[in-house]
Amino acid sequence: MSSIFKSFLVNWDDIPRENVSESIGRQVIHGDELTIVKLYMKSGACVQTHSHPNEQFTWILTGHIRFQYGEDLEHVVDLKSGDVLHLPANIPHNATCIEDTIDFDIFTPTREDWKLPTGNCYFSSTKNGSK
Fold first, then answer.
1. Ranges for the Cupin type-2 domain (predicted)?
2. Is residue 7 part of a domain?
3. Domain range holding 88?
């Protein structure tokens, strides 16, 4: 095998959990071209309306979460265990947990903003405006 091949093996139990708000915790792995995140959100937790230059896939492991997305947040979808939502880059969106929820979010390219102290400003415990 070539020495230019770079890989690593990690177990989620070994990744520290960071609390980004009172009701949202996460574990993050950054690769060269993508970021994968395991989010732990309590019922009522909110991710405020935002957009980013990253394509996003959200896979619900357990729980129930409501996403609003689109230029005017005109689309509303409830996701439950097993559901996967694809959000193209630069699409405004927000989310509110209906139940305690654990999900995986996959972003490409890497979420460089999450490496900065200001990169978590849209995680909160306050209610999103809903349609």
1. 42-101
2. no
3. 18-122
Give me the sheet containing 101-108, strands edge to edge: 18-19, 24-30, 35-41, 101-108, 55-62, 84-87
Strands 35-41 and 101-108: antiparallel
Interatomic CA distance for residues 40 and 122, integer angstroms: 15
pLDDT, average across residues 62-90: 98
Residue 4: which pLDDT band, with cuts at 50, 70 and 90? Answer: low
Mean pLDDT of 33-55: 95
Domain containing residue 113: CATH number: 2.60.120.10
Domain count of the fold of the chain: 1
